[in-house]
Automatic annotation (TrEMBL):
This is Cell shape-determining protein MreB. The gene is mreB. The keyword ATP-binding applies. It is found in: Cytoplasm. GO terms for biological process: cell morphogenesis; regulation of cell shape. It comes from Nitratifractor salsuginis (strain DSM 16511 / JCM 12458 / E9I37-1).
Length: 347
């Protein structure tokens, strides 16, 4: 009886899958694909009574980072894989859900949200409640390594070991998955943001040049590399001279960026090694055969597959569309909501 009622309403609802990333949030509507793919940034304006109002969310808000006047704050509410600002995270989730769902819509959707593995129970509850406040009928949470593995097309339900490394903005999440469950997982707070920060520090020390996080991210994407390249890449970067205070520019090479990122990349490799060390022998055998799959934006760092492969002595592959893997996996989990092992969800 209740199942019937659920299905009747389910037929009208646009169920949603949300990849709530620290760098990017993606929303996928069941049967329609990805509807939103925007930075997890919210610009807040504080009025003269001290009340906060959303000015912009997503790309528009990211464009304001580092450029806002006093009464506007561009906030990244999720940092280092944790919720740094509950209130703004809630506002962001509600904004995205309402944006795809439309206010007039009669339906109240089921929502699957993928969250970083390291979230506390309090943070999980906050994520769920914000989706419920935005009109969700049911909210299910799925762990990031599981969603990444599903999205990368790994046979997660089979009785064999699959190893996925998801390198996002705030966290690198490593998971060994077998029979639809996470057997071993590890989350470290070293990923894209820390790489950007290490580039800011390096450029400051080496060239006395002050650059912002956004410029550092551009350098990482444009010329960053984990391995020595046959032909070095060079670009010009502008910033403020720390000593003179003047605006100036310097030439930076891919070798500089490799040096800047070396320590953080080593930490990612160490985390992967430690997961491999803990993997039960039978599953390890499968991984030796199937290799390691990289997802998340960090998978796109030049030569990272080779770099990790040389260290762990295993084949390392980059998933197709690594930036979309978690969202796609969350979408598949949504499709299979009624079928998937309940253990994969936390509801
Ligand atoms: N081509 C590229 N080369 C290197 N890094 C990239 C590239 N494209 C995106 N990134 C980085 O990937 C990160 C964002 O990845 P992704 O969207 O997978 O993270 P997220 O899911 O939002 O974060 P998290 O998994 O920590 O919650 C950013 O740090 C971004 O700079």
């Amino acid at each position: 009886m209740f199942g019937f009622v659920k299905n009747i309403f389910g037929a009208f609802s646009k169920d949603l899958a949300i990849d709530l990333g620290t760098a990017n949030t993606l929303v996928l509507v069941k049967g329609q694909g990805i509807s939103i793919n925007e930075p997890s940034v919210v610009a807040i304006q504080v009025d003269k009574h001290g009340q906060e109002h959303i000015l912009a969310v997503g790309q528009e808000a990211k464009n304001m980072v580092g450029k806002t006047p006093g009464n506007i704050k561009a906030i990244r509410p999720m940092k280092d894989g944790v919720i740094a600002d509950f209130h703004v995270t809630e506002m962001m989730i509600e904004y995205f859900i309402r944006k795809v769902h439309g206010r007039k819509s009669f339906s109240s959707p089921r929502v699957v949200i993928c969250v970083p593995y390291g979230l506390t129970q309090v943070e999980r509850k906050a994520v769920k409640e914000s989706a419920l406040n935005a009109g969700a009928r049911y909210v299910y949470l799925i762990e990031e390594p599981m969603a990444a593995a599903i999205g990368a097309g790994l046979p997660v339900k089979d009785p064999q070991g699959n190893l996925v490394v998801d390198i996002g903005g705030g966290t690198t999440e490593i998971g060994v998955i077998s029979l639809g469950g996470l057997v071993i997982s590890k989350s470290i707070r070293v990923a894209g943001d820390k790489l950007d920060a290490s580039i800011v520090d390096y450029v400051k020390k080496k060239f006395n040049l002050l650059i912002g996080d956004r410029v550092a991210e551009e350098l990482k994407i444009k010329i960053g590399t984990a391995i020595k390249l046959d032909e070095e890449l060079i670009t010009t970067v502008r910033g403020r001279d720390q000593v003179e205070g003047t605006l100036t520019s310097v030439e930076i090479t891919s070798e500089h960026i490799r040096e800047a990122m070396a320590e953080q990349l080593k930490q990612i490799a160490e985390a992967l090694k430690s997961v491999l060390e803990q993997t039960p022998p039978d599953l390890a055998g499968d991984i030796v055969e199937n290799g390691v799959v990289l997802t998340g934006g960090g998978a796109l760092i030049r030569g990272l597959d080779k770099y990790l492969s040389d260290i762990v002595k295993l084949p390392v592959y980059i998933a197709e569309d690594p930036l979309l893997a978690v969202a796609k996996g969350t979408g598949k989990a949504l499709d299979e909501l009624d079928l998937l092992q309940q253990a994969a969800f936390d509801d």
